[in-house]
Amino acid sequence: SSSSSSSSSSRSSSKVTKKKRRRSRLPHALRLSEHNPPPLTTIMRERREVEIQLLESLRYGDTAMSDLWSLWFAERGPQAATRLLEVEALCSKGPAFWDQAEEQLFQIIDDCGPYWAEPINRLATLYYMQGRLEDSKALCEVVLTLKPWHVGALSGIVLGCAGMGDVGGARMWADRRLPPMPPNNTTGGGRRTKWVNIFVKEANAKLERAEKETYHHNPQEDEQEQLMRNKSIESEHHDSSSDSVGVDPNFDEEDTWQ
Q: Is the pTM of this model over 0.85?
């Protein structure tokens, strides 16, 4: 009986140690300035250009959304995408597999670097499912630093803020979501068009900066510049707040945050 109790205590201690180790790695993954972004190769430039085209097409409807998700999954090539899909399969098996999925996501981030947004978004989703709302929100913020137009992270951060009772944060981020297409309207309407214009402009600016960073890189300046651009985006959305619906209880965030 004493031996059994000791063995159980040892397993419990091991699980706690592993969780502490994973959590201690989280802040490091958040500090983009400590990691050099990958150089902009020809293939990466082409993917960025396709992403901008897909964002542009969102003004006319949501048909490009699945292509956008596929592009985000495949940003680091087919092998990395396969690893990410395998983690998705683990998550879908239920809570018993979530620790394993978390470890694999950390491994993907370690291998591919924190400038690939999708594994971080998947980790944020997993943390939300586990009830780790603060960690989930922090990771959504990293994704939105990389891709301010990431519709999944925008939905996820609204869910996280709402879950923590942060009504102001939830409303702020809700104002940045992709507005739904108005009924019987193929041009998207004013709010949808403005969203597309803002983030297509931002995506083009990020591509231009990435091209410059291929030859000269100062991560501290990049992070400061991104913070300023985020404030600018917030201001642009705030200017149109009279048209905003805020946190719409009928809008299904869970479906959007894939």
A: no
